[in-house]
Amino acid sequence: MAGAGQEDWWYDEAAGPLVRPYAMVRGRTRPVRSELHLVTQVRAMRNASDPDSLTVEHLEIMKLCQRPLSVAEVAAYLDLPLQVVKVLLSDLVQRGDVIVRDPSRVTEIPDRNLLQAVLDGVRGI
Fold first, then answer.
1. What is the DSSP secondary structure assignment for residue 57, as one 8-state letter?
2. How far is the C-alpha of 121 from the C-alpha of 20, rounded, in Å?
3. What is the predicted pLDDT for the residue at 74?
4. CA atoms of 48 and 95, how far apart (whole Å)
5. Cβ atoms of residues 100 and 31 within 8 Å
6. Contact, 102 vs 34, CB < 8 A?
7. If DSSP codes are grouped into helix, strand and coil, which group holds residue 56?
8. Burial class (CB in 10 A: 0-12, 13-18, 19+), 47
9. Each residue of 65-106: pLDDT tens digit?
10. Dihedral through CA 17, CA 21, CA 27, CA 33, nearest 10?
11. In angstroms, how far is CA 91 from the centroid of its own chain?
């Protein structure tokens, strides 16, 4: 017999709803697009091709990426593991809902320490 407390097992008062990262990407561990690196710039297209078929996480990425952001920044803003964000972004790239800028076209990649400092700063927001 299920009591009221047993129905709310997925909810933690302090943390909110508990959704495991692998559930967000339906168990996938690798993005289809391999060109997504920490510094890859991502920008959402004006309108999603079919917003009703997107998950909450996909929609949040679309909202965040109205201006170009790096993959690392998207992960930091969403407070999700980098690999999960890469899988979600890969879905959006395949659909044509976001565009990415190839990091190999960047003339100079910033220092790793600088990127870490930026990531730490974004997480502190």
1. H
2. 25
3. 92
4. 9
5. no
6. no
7. helix
8. exposed
9. 999 999 999 999 988 888 888 888 888 998 888 888 876 665
10. 140
11. 11
